[in-house]
């Protein structure tokens, strides 16, 4: 048993977990972090960072392919997948070392084992003491005043197509490929599936995307989804929407998989199953607490991330809100500030930016026009195309179908949401995030001087267009 009682024990050392640990340390609290793998979690090791490292290599590859359009002739270039994978590992290792350095500097104790919540006992009158089991069979008990659960999530498999980690891949598996397949079917047309479709296509893989719903990117506007589908189709990706698969539609041979996709038959080398993620909430001791979960296993919390056991909080993928690293970090910091009486503002999920790092990129915040009308707003959308922005034309003279669209509540004259598709919009969205956080108006957005030429001028023009004052559109 640990000799000291901790102010806070955090289960899970992913993005939500380690950020929350640092915040608690800033408040002068004694913090323990329990993680059975590597600090940084899915985002750092099997998600955001390695995927974006591959996407950067794919972007460079695509740029070289079209270099002659910029007046630069490049001969005899070739893709070196071993070096691409090594660069990805180097990026991850650098970031991992940075996280370890932060944890050490903030004097946070790390327990490298599997943590479970215990019920009331002689060690504590309330549930929450953490049992840590190590690989060698040894264990520790960590008494504490508060617990924050940040156990994250895992990829979901199809019941008739379980992961074999060689041919049938999860999003974690595909990051570790030794060599590129000639062909790849991606089951699931959401964010993760489309990012891999984009990068694999740039790497020269024949890619097919199979989506059970009526369209890809169901969480984004129809205009965004259709534009992205068109752009990826023009680059060679094949799409099969409204395609429900069952066991009888799949045949696995020694070196290939055959899929009956409606009226089409696909034969591919590998399959990526990307249909969502499930929370890691089994076998962490929730049965020893008053904590309630949803039918999907997500932990139920209030606006301050508290569970029904008021000294136990939860944040990140395990609560099933927006499964995004920056959202999990925000939830975790709100939890820590609340448990130590710093009165944080509850998270407003309509003001959380969402990004898709495909080529072209997609970014949004709040409601799109269809969602706004469904929720009863008297909504109107205003759009500015990127082809009206000089810097966007400079970036790519052939890919000018992108746009930025803002949704306005005409009764209250406030911004309900903004969505865009085009060059570097995953950076531009942060200006919109600040605008929404500060309750800024479209006039303020339009009257803010933006450097010329810059991509962000699209936001200035958009703000002016709402006010009937736009210059270039």
CATH architecture annotation name of the largest domain: 3-Layer(bba) Sandwich
Number of helices: 13
Determine the oligomeric state from the structure. Answer: single chain
CATH fold name of the largest domain? FAD/NAD(P)-binding domain
**Biggest sheet descriptor:** 5 strands, parallel
**What's the CATH superfamily of the largest domain, by name?**
FAD/NAD(P)-binding domain
CATH class of the largest domain: Alpha Beta
Global morphology? globular
* Strands in their spatial order, largest beta sheet: 3-2-1-7-18
Strand tally: 23
Query: What is the total domain count?
Result: 3
Q: Could you say which structural class the secondary elements and strand pairing correspond to?
A: alpha/beta
Roughly how many Å is the radius of gyration? 24 Å
| SS strand fraction | 15-25%
> How far apart lie the N and C ends?
68 Å
Determine the fraction of residues in helical runs and give it as a percent range: 25-40%
Mean pLDDT score: 96
Low-confidence stretches: none
């Amino acid at each position: 048993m640990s000799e000291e009682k901790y102010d806070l024990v955090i289960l899970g050392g992913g993005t939500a977990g380690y950020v929350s640990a640092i915040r608690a340390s800033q408040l002068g609290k004694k913090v323990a972090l329990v993680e059975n793998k590597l600090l940084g979690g899915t985002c750092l090791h099997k998600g955001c960072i390695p995927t974006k490292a591959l996407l950067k290599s794919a972007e460079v590859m695509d740029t070289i392919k079209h270099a002659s359009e910029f007046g630069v002739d490049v001969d005899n270039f070739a893709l070196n997948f071993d070096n691409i994978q090594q660069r990805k590992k180097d990026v991850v290792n650098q970031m991992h070392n940075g996280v370890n350095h932060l944890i050490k500097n903030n004097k946070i104790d790390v327990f490298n084992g599997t943590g479970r919540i215990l019920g009331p006992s002689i060690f504590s009158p309330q549930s929450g003491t953490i049992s840590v089991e190590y690989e060698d069979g040894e264990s520790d008990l960590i008494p504490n005043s508060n617990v924050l659960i940040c156990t994250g999530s895992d990829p979901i498999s199809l019941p008739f197509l379980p992961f074999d980690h060689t041919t049938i891949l999860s999003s974690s598996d595909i990051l570790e490929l030794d060599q590129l397949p000639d062909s790849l079917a991606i089951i699931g047309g959401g964010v993760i599936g489309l990012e891999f479709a984009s990068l694999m296509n740039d790497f020269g893989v024949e890619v097919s995307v199979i989506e059970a719903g009526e369209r890809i990117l169901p969480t984004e506007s129809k205009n965004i989804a259709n534009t992205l589908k068109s752009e990826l189709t023009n680059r060679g990706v094949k799409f099969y929407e409204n395609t429900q698969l069952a066991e009888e539609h799949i045949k696995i041979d020694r070196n290939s998989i055959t899929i009956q996709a409606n009226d089409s038959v696909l034969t591919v080398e590998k399959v990526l199953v990307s249909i969502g993620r499930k929370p890691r909430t089994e076998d962490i001791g929730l049965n020893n607490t008053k904590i309630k979960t949803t039918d999907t296993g997500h932990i139920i919390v209030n606006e301050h991330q508290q569970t029904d056991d008021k000294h136990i909080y939860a944040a990140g993928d395990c609560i099933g809100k927006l499964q995004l690293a920056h959202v999990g970090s925000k939830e975790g910091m709100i939890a820590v500030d609340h448990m130590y009486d710093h009165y944080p503002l509850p998270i407003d999920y309509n003001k959380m930016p969402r990004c898709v790092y495909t080529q072209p990129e997609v970014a949004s915040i709040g409601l799109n026009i269809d969602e706004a009308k469904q929720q009863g707003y008297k909504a109107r959308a205003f759009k500015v195309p990127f082809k009206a922005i000089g810097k966007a034309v400079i970036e790519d003279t052939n890919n000018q179908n992108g746009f930025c669209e803002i949704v306005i509540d005409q009764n209250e004259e406030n911004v309900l949401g903004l969505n865009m598709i085009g060059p570097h919009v995953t950076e531009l969205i942060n200006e919109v995030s600040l605008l929404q956080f500060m309750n800024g108006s479209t006039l303020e957005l339009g009257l803010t001087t933006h450097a010329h030429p810059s991509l962000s001028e699209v936001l200035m023009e958009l703000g002016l267009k709402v006010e009937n004052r736009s210059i270039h559109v």
